[in-house]
Amino acid sequence: MKKRVFSGIQPSGNLHIGNYLGALKNWVASQENFDNIFCIVDLHAITVPQDPKVLKQKIREVAGIYFASGIDPKQSIVFVQSDVSAHAELAWILNCFTPLGWMSRMTQFKEKSGDQRESVSVGLYDYPVLMASDILLYDTDEVPVGEDQKQHVEITRDIAQRFNSIYGETFKLPTPVIPKTGARVMDLLEPVKKMSKSDDREGRTLPLLASVDQLRSAIMGAATDSQKEIVFDMGRPGIYNLLEIYEGVTSLSREEIEARFAGKGYGDFKKELADRVIEFLEPFQKRYQDLTSDPAQLESLLTEGAEKAAEIAEKKMAEVKNKVGLG
Ligand code: AMP
Ligand code: TRP
């Protein structure tokens, strides 16, 4: 029996190289060895305001990006979260077993709500419980995500443990799997904050579907420092981040990369990084165009995915309802 992997991305904003290196790349790399479920988490996206037309289109865009990255519908279930009602249903039940205090500790909520704490939605606050439901419905063993999601997988374990201790063994405890490199790709202009799809003003991110000119100009304009050496030094966040992106798209070792740029300047390095990123993204974008040129085909893959996911999820829901005494 293969271990189960579950992960998801929100269909909001423009997916960027951080989403690829922190999440997608690793999903694809280990696809054969696992029983995989990849979700497009649209219920998570509406925790902040969304334009309905844009949301619908973004859901298809993320599906296209999953498949263009190499997710194979023969090896992995791909589906849209709101197509399987068990996610929202389990979230409600788990809400009733999750102490308020646990949610108040979540750093992502604190960051996202900022000084708007009283006016953001209850959904934004509750988002980790919905994420826990996603994971727990499928007896997930591993959750491959970027560094920012580690705390949410840990709280999923706490919620599962609490439920299990009351009702007996029901949920498997998942493990977060964070990549060694690319787990936290930084903003190109302010390399002390994470590259984010909710702040993708020009030059800050490298969107996976961006034009060659946009990619090149973002890389050439990326912040560095006044030193010269091109080495992996975490104390120099700008150059470190660019080197990590180079490492991520070429899969060369750090030693090889440092040797290659020994004695060269930032300008040469950035030019070559832009070439490598473009070389990597061009075939990716071509696959994306091909896949999305046939919307009916994409739709049918998602319908098939939702049917397979629902079959697994509904079994778990029945067990949970029975244990809690519902219905
Ligand atoms: P999100 O963009 O928040 O929907 O995240 C989707 C996935 O990409 C999650 O696994 C995140 O941890 C990962 N991710 C998001 N931003 C970054 C980043 N800047 N660096 C690495 N991984 C990221
Ligand atoms: N919260 C995750 C993010 O913003 C997305 C997500 C939702 C997720 N449900 C999940 C990731 C379940 C892994 C497993 O990145």
Kindly describe this structure.
54% of the residues lie in helices and 8% in strands. It has 327 residues and is mainly α. The chain folds into 2 domains: 4-178 and 295-324, HUPs (Rossmann fold); 183-293, Tyrosyl-Transfer RNA Synthetase. Strands 1-2-3 form a 3-stranded parallel sheet. β1 (3-9), α1 (17-29) and β2 (34-40) form a beta-alpha-beta unit. The longest helix is centred in the C-terminal third of the chain and has 30 residues, at 295-324. The relative contact order is 0.15. The model has no long low-confidence stretch (mean pLDDT 96). It binds adenosine monophosphate (AMP) and tryptophan (TRP). Adenosine monophosphate binds at residues 9-10, 18-19, 21-23, 145-146, 148-149, 182-185, 194-195, 197.
